[in-house]
Amino acid sequence: MPRQTAPPSVVGPLRAAWGSRISPEALRTSLLPPSEALNLGLSVGALRTEQQQALSGIATSALAASEQPWPWPRPSDYARYFIDGNRTAYEDAVAARQRRLSRAVLALLALSSAHTGRKHETPGPDTAAKRLTAEVANGVLALCEQSTWCWAAHDDTYTRHGTVLPTVTEPFLDLGAGEVAAQLAWIDALLGEHLEHVYPGLGARVRHEVQVRVMRPFLERRDWHWLGLDGNVHNWSPWIQGNVVVAALRLIEDAYLRAEVISLAIEGLDRYVASLPADGAIDEGSAYWWNGAARLLEVLERLRMATGGVLDPSHVEPLDALIDFPVAMSFSSGWNVSFADARARHAADKSWRTLFHWGHVVGNSRAVALAVAHRDSCALPCPIEAGLGRVLVALADEDWCTLDSEPTASTGTSDGSFLPAQVWLPSIQVSVDRPRAGDLRGLALAAKAGTNGEHHNHNDVGSFLVALDGIPVVIDLGQPTYTALSFSPRRYEIWANRSGWHSVPVIAGREQSEGARFRARDVKRISGTDQIHPGGARGLDMDLAGAYALPADAVWRRSLRLQPDGDGVVTLEDAWALPTTPEFQLRSLERLLVVGDITQRPDALLLTPSGGGRRALLTWSGARTPHIERRDIEDPLLREAWGDHINRISWTLPEATVQGVFCLSIGVAS
Fold first, then answer.
1. For residue 644, which phi and psi values (nearest 5 degrees)?
2. pTM of the model as a whole
3. How far apart are CA 581 and CA 583, in angstroms?
4. Contacts for 436 with CB less than 8 Å, ≥ 6 apart
5. β-pair partners for 558
6. Neighbour tally for 100: CB within 10 Å
7. Residue 508 CB-density burial (10 A; 0-12 exposed, 13-18 middle, 19+ buried)
8. What is the pLDDT of residues 325-341, one digit of tens each?
9. Backbone dihedral angles phi then psi of residue 130, each to the nearest 5 degrees
10. What CA–CA distance (Å, rounded) separates 154 from 164?
């Protein structure tokens, strides 16, 4: 499998820190052998009682599942992506198969006699261990016999061959393929000797499939978009190449080939690290920190351990800032700032141990406190949905497993203790302000300028969110369920991605346009420390006109402020000057996307957050009584975050007004 020549790579932070140590020649010497490279020293005995009970419960469910047919990712569901745009039917079946296999592995771990020194003792004919061994072997072989490990939404089978089914002779290396390869590597590292003792030949089959489906394509093709050779680097890079490293560490026996693959993967990871801004921001949205930045951190940890510390990432720039991003994008431990394709609530696939570990590595106590706040969100130290490797790493971390997550003065883990008073991320032009650091109470304002050409972009320049006591009331919908439209030229046919369903104006009948040239102009961060803005008011100023298809002389100046006294007051002021030609005298609208119950008064609105709590009071000037539009939510991801409906408040600005001012104030109702 000859490696194709790639353009010379920029010397990124990894190469700058590690130099020639990442060459194939050096790696052949420094890498631990495959039998040791993924050794975690895992001991179930280190777990707390409730975690051991959780593993026992998994064993019970895994034994019950072993009597049922395995989930079958149907070819017809694979083809649906190309026929009707549905991608979840196939991906859900794939995920169900992999989760069942992970449960069986964890169940066998809990029951295995490996912890009593009888690792290869053959279980009796009816023992649970024998049934679980068969269950794991069946799951491994099912993956080996699956036509493709690639998800249909990523496969180039249709564009290259005109087919709606996988082309098995040309496997596509995507997120799904990388995940399977890494899962098989972790299974082999944990149970490989036992499985080979009971089912000789299974390990050889695994290695063959990983070689053909992952390693060979990785080395032979250099046109993968996620390599970032064109300068466009995104979260696929660490996600896929991190999994390639894990698989290579365990499943490639040839030392020369193994070092070649890992060196090439580090080169790709370095392009990703080099693309990260100094402030550590992720423009794909906060949810993609977990499947981008966190994946990077995890593979760097694996490389450190697999080289006995030769590749030590502790001081690689800009990891310090990167680790702070989940904190910066938090309204509370349960709610996120949901710009772009972020989710407003944390999904059940987070490895909080990753944030905990790296918070300690770089000395970020806020990141540690946020992770600790989620320590008992799952009975296991990491949910199975996060992936088998993450579960095993979390199980092996004694500090994480034995952590007491009850709020104490010494650990500083009370809800909201990790929250900063101010956040400013200039690379994506996002700010977050709250009255006080470490306190949920009151109003928090998150504001965004930026462009409409970001990764996972929504047309949301000038959008803002407001949380009351840590719960969003003025919202950004975040990520809807992905379909064939999501990453196609028709992306903005999806209603949740359009500016019309964000808290931004409709200007002269126009919504915002997509593309990097549609951006905020003259953006200014107001930090509350200068003489021009006395009283500590903090926020963001910008001209929104550049995000719309308007003449260059059009101006729509938006000022968003948090007055931090007491519970805080959020104010919006829009001042505009539009051309006087007839086509720009169409009606303009101010819009606000909210969730919760609305009580109308003659000159104000009261917003009660979902689930109750204190109410927000909205008052305004520059427009008459607004129109309130209810939108029922059918999308499962959005419904999970916001319930069965949201509301859009629209103020119609005076007719044919080419100049004017609109003001909105949001306070806490007395």
1. -85, -10
2. 0.92
3. 6
4. 421, 442, 564
5. 542, 574
6. 22
7. buried
8. 999 999 999 999 999 99
9. -70, -40
10. 12
